[in-house]
Amino acid sequence: MNLPNKLTLIRIAAIPFFIACFFLPETVLFSVFGADVLLKYIIAAVVFILAYITDIMDGRIARKRGIVTDFGKLMDPIADKLLTASCMIMLIGRGLMSFCDELMPLFTIIVLAREFLVSGIRLVAASKGRVIAAGKLGKLKTLLQSISLPVILIAGPVFKAIGVPIDFILLAAAVVMTIWSGLDYALRNKEVFKAE
Questions:
Q1: What's the Cα-to-Cα distance from 107 to each of 84, 185, 194, rounded to whole Å?
Q2: What is the reported pLDDT for 166?
Q3: Residue 178 · residue 141 · CB < 8 Å
Q4: Closest by alpha carbon to 131, among 70, 194, 63, 69?
Q5: Rounded to an integer, what distance in angstroms lies between the CA atom of residue 104 and that of residue 97?
Q6: Rounded to the nearest 10 degrees, how much is the dihedral formed by the CA atoms of 34, 35, 39, 43?
């Protein structure tokens, strides 16, 4: 197994450790503007960011060395989906988002619905001998999600305290891009569903 694929598997293996962070003690690391920043969420954000870095590295290494594989094309986006979905699910009901935290379940459903749609298209394509790699909009969607989620973990309560919902704006933009990229992906690959 080549290095990019190993990095993809490391990203998947990091997910249980990320989830475990949410069950650590409620230790306050510091307070800013009266908002408590908990150590467990900082650790979770660090694990998330390190896992995302493996996503950047595996793609670059694969392209640079010319070792892009079908395994990588399929598993790399699945690893991203698992990491993002895990984070969004764990954020539900924790009150970390600075604005409209009650929208987190809806945002999570939208993200998961898009990922099921795209995965379904990929499965149908694979059954016909085609492997569809992630598109540019999908990569931008992943980038926005990978920025917004750690920001919520680290600074959501602080943004709430100062009344500036930067974390919410970032996540809302990620959700809009999630919808846009999903529709674009479905339209670009609609021939997959044509009867042969």
A1: 12, 19, 31
A2: 97
A3: yes
A4: 70
A5: 8
A6: -140
Q: What is the CATH number of domain 3-193?
A: 1.20.120.1760
Closest of 188, 192, 77 to residue 128, by C-alpha: 192
Structure confidence by residue, pLDDT tens digits, 119-175 = 888 888 878 878 776 778 988 998 999 999 999 999 999 999 999 999 999 999 999
Residue ranges of domains in the chain: 3-193
pTM tops 0.85:
yes
Q: Residue 144 to residues 28, 64, 140, 167, 180: CA-CA distances in angstroms?
A: 28, 24, 6, 11, 13
| SS3 of the chain | CCHHHHHHHHHHHHHHHHHHHCCCCCCEEEEECCEEEEHHHHHHHHHHHHHHHHHHHHHHHHHHHCCCCHHHHHHHHHHHHHHHHHHHHHHCCCCCCCCCHHHHHHHHHHHHHHHHHHHHHHHHHHHCCCCCCCCHHHHHHHHHHHHHHHHHHHHHHHHHHHCCCHHHHHHHHHHHHHHHHHHHHHHHCHHHHCCC
The number of beta carbons lying within 10 Å of the beta carbon of residue 80 is 24
Tokens of 103: 């929208």
Work out the pLDDT band at 196, boundaries 50, 70, 90.
Answer: low
